[in-house]
Amino acid sequence: MPDNAGRYDIAVIGGGAAGMMAGITALERGRSAVIIEKNGKLGKKLFLTGKGRCNLTNACPEDELRRHIVSNEKFMYSSLKRFSNTDVMDFFRESGLKIKTERGGRVFPESDHSSDVIRVLEKRLRAGGADIRLNTRAVKLLTENGKCVGVTVSGEDGKEYDISTESVIVATGGLSYPSTGSTGDGYRFAADQGISVGELSPSLVPLEIKGDICRRLQGLSLKNVRIAVKDGNKTIFHSKDTGEMLFTHFGVSGPLILTASSEIPPEAYRRDLKLYIDLKPALGVEELDQRVQRDFREAMNREYRNSLSKLLPSSLIPVMVEVTRTDPDKKVNSVTKEERSRLVNSLKAFELEIKGTRGFEEAVITKGGISVKETDPKTLGSKKVGGLYFAGEVLDVDAHTGGFNLQIAWSTGYAAGSFA
Predict the structure, then answer these.
(1) In sequence order, which residues have a C-beta less than 8 Å from that of residue 298 and are 6 or more positions away?
(2) What is the pLDDT of residues 109-132, one digit of tens each?
């Protein structure tokens, strides 16, 4: 065994949000810990979150926070009680990081630099005496008599060696942003131990749309709109609040779309999925019809295609004219009630056919993961293998955008580090 192999109380595989929090928590309980990170620095994915600003958590009340957890919310109850969003904010303040709360309860470092968050976490790890091994890849878990007793790793020189431990915490992330090292190692470690891993799919991800409408509208950003996603006659998602979205060459993106993607079951993409955009959410159908009639009266001698400038962005007008199947050169005073009704309905429910999602390269998180039925919700320990714990995105838990997924990482990391 090489000199640098060593023996520790705990090995943490993954130096991201959950892994660093797990390591800090274990160290501050008097345990020795080694952090195994395949990248050349800690927190590579954390560096990118919130467009580089790092949306740490959300300051909303606890019951509201739990409602933003899409998959296996009940599993998170114990972890969130043990280390809540308030605890997270206190943790960073006490560590010397100034934080601020913005619209929607989103919490950021005051500096708007995710690097400051990573610096605080690394400082706490080093202060606790962590052995941080960068450019070191976990190869496999070591088990004896149904208990995890260490991990085989590969160092910078490519040589493999074993690290002996009392416990191992797997915090390897999911499959999203594979360039940051999230390549599914944790799922493989779990599967090798006979632990179930659910179907994996991209989430908080842009949607691809059939046809060429989105390509024609590429670059158009819509604000203060609502959206709904329907699977046949069943509504899968309906945005409660208005928000922003963006048309791209492949489909649609933006905060509203990412949130919607987290609510769509992976199997639904194999069916007839439709996206509906309410372009005028502040007006009911009758109110909007009256508004359209008023606009038409003011432009009664204009052609239909030249009468919509007060209702729509210029790039959307030719598309709307096509969608409403009305002669673009028809004088507005000749537009029939039926044609006007088609316009009003299209303004309230602009329809697009969903083809699927973009890939893991563009997904913020991974939906699916290690079975929560086979993981103790209090300790985050495996029910099948002793001394083996899981934390963060590797688990089958995911949430909306807005700091909620990082809260899951902090809470599960804290729980795993406390009990490992």
Answers:
(1) none
(2) 999 999 999 999 999 999 999 999
